[in-house]
Amino acid sequence: MAFANLTIGILGLSSFWRRSRDYLVASIVAYPSWFFADGLGHVYSLVVQSNDAPSNVGTILFTDFLMPILVVILLWLSREERTRLKS
Fold first, then answer.
1. CA–CA separation, 13 vs 8, rounded Å?
2. Could you report the per-residue pLDDT of 20-72, keeping only the tens digit for each?
3. What is this structure's pTM?
4. Residues ≥6 apart with Cβ < 8 Å to 36
5. Where are the domains of the chain?
6. What distances in angstroms separate CA 68 from CA 3, 33, 36, 75, one per listed residue?
């Protein structure tokens, strides 16, 4: 798990230096897809295995679904700023 976090962090930081919209979008696609799939795994564990531990259905479950939505919204909101900075 630590290497997955490291990979996403490196993608995010390198997209800052690269300053390419396509590279940023690729980095952002990696983050929500990973977290959303992780959230589905938590829901599966809750429903099938009745795992209601706080580390499975507590704050982490909401984070797994809300953070990807927030990141995609921020990407969408930044589209006009990026085009303004290019001109």
1. 9
2. 777 778 878 888 888 888 899 999 999 999 999 988 888 888 888 999 899 88
3. 0.70
4. 64, 65, 68
5. 2-86
6. 19, 8, 7, 11
